[in-house]
Amino acid sequence: xxxxxxxxxxxxxxxxxxxxxxxxxxxxxxxxxxxxxxxxxxxxxxxxxxxxxxxxxxxxxxxxxxxxxxxxxxxxxxxxxxxxxxxxxxxxxxxxxxxxxxxxxxxxxxxxxxxxxxxxxxxxxxxxxxxxxxxxxxxxxxxxxxxxxxxxxxxxxxxxxxxxxxxxxxxxxxxxxxxxxxxxxxxxxxxxxxxxxxxxxxxxxxxxxxxxxxxxxxxxxxxxxxxxxxxxxxxxxxxxxxxxxxxxxxxxxxxxxxxxxxxxxxxxxxxxxxxxxxxxxxxxxxxxxxxxxxxxxxxxxxxxxxxxxxxxxxxxxxxxxxxxxxxxxxxxxxxxxxxxxxxxxxxxxxxxxxxxxxxxxxxxxxxxxxxxxxxxxxxxxxxxxxxxxxxxxxxxxxxxxxxxxxxxxxxxxxxxxxxxxxxxxxxxxxxxxxxxxxxxxxxxxxxxxxxxxxxxxxxxxxxxxxxxxxxxxxxxxxxxxxxxxxxxxxxxxxxxxxxxxxxxxxxxxxxxxxxxxxxxxxxxxxxxxxxxxxxxxxxxxxxxx
Length: 545
Description:
This protein is mainly α. Helices cover 69% and strands 2% of the residues.
């Protein structure tokens, strides 16, 4: 690569960091300047993420090794210096993060960015942490970026105040502090044994450990795996999620939808680099598969028992984590491509659903407090003369209510993975790929494959039942249903995320092909290792020549 393209890998971290720092210098009363700076930042991040995605696909020419870009911070060569690595997997996660971030930001400008202080800088810092976690090439900076987006999420979770947010926030903070401690302990042990924290270098040195150090390394990896499982909301470490995510304001909960996937990403990344060495028992597929099934069962029971719509979405996230852990725990990489497709679809859907849940609350007569605040924020006059209590099925449905009903129906279909949308495409690809995995003794699908199929079908049926009951309660209850007033800034991001899922269905072929290539590159860790060690050593991607 030549010129300014050399510096693209650093921009997803540098841009939100500088924007957030500048926002802290501005007073909250200067909302137009804060909002303009926020949209400038996310626009640049989106352009950079899409460009990096095309570069990893080979559609934009570069001198990257195996379409993997390495950026050296401070011009220090790997494995001694800090490196950012852009491959197909990290590029996909960058694009997914910023799409979700833009939609959440648009939604927040209708009301939520004005109910507390420092919303916009915290929003930028959480994007900075997420982008950095997907780009970093060493474990210590993975810990650093984890702490950046978690620290920002603590403030955003409490945004808007309220006893419920404070109570849920304390649980959320406590659990994540414990997870951060485990992460730091494991990183310290790994460095003490191997003398390196560079992921590519670990992929080399882990297979060269003697028996004594190997046991200590496996212990460290087990602790590291537990820390990642906390982030991934895996059972039994996910009790905190439904309350915390349901208590957060809608745009914050939308951005939270991808935070659990950072744990999944870390497990996939470390597993792909360390499994070939035979050293890390903690990243073996057997334990991931078993924990995934347990998470699926927990999520299925939770979604059947839950009546609160916000918590229902939280259990949907737990179901998606269970599905991903189970599928990724299967042998080989046959299910990796479909799993990544499922990850994209589930993140977009649950992100839209969190925003939709808040809008749907306005249809309930006992949600007058939410409505009155919204009327004031939008500069609307509340219609106190119209009585909607007598509305029954068959009466003409106002546009706002029709939008909410159609969006809820679409979200339910997507989460339940029913045809014809992207959720169904993902589940069908997962199930068909699972059934193709044969047992050498039986010459047919293995027991693990059948358990995955049964668990996914059961969770899908449970989701249909739970969301069906919720839809009937929310939209067919004539005694409490009233026509809501919505802002166009709230309707647009919900529509964009749902239309993105529909677009995934239409272009499922090319997307699945790209994700299959991503899976193949993960199955060959030498591509990543050679790109970091060889390419960095030759300084072909140094920022500043």
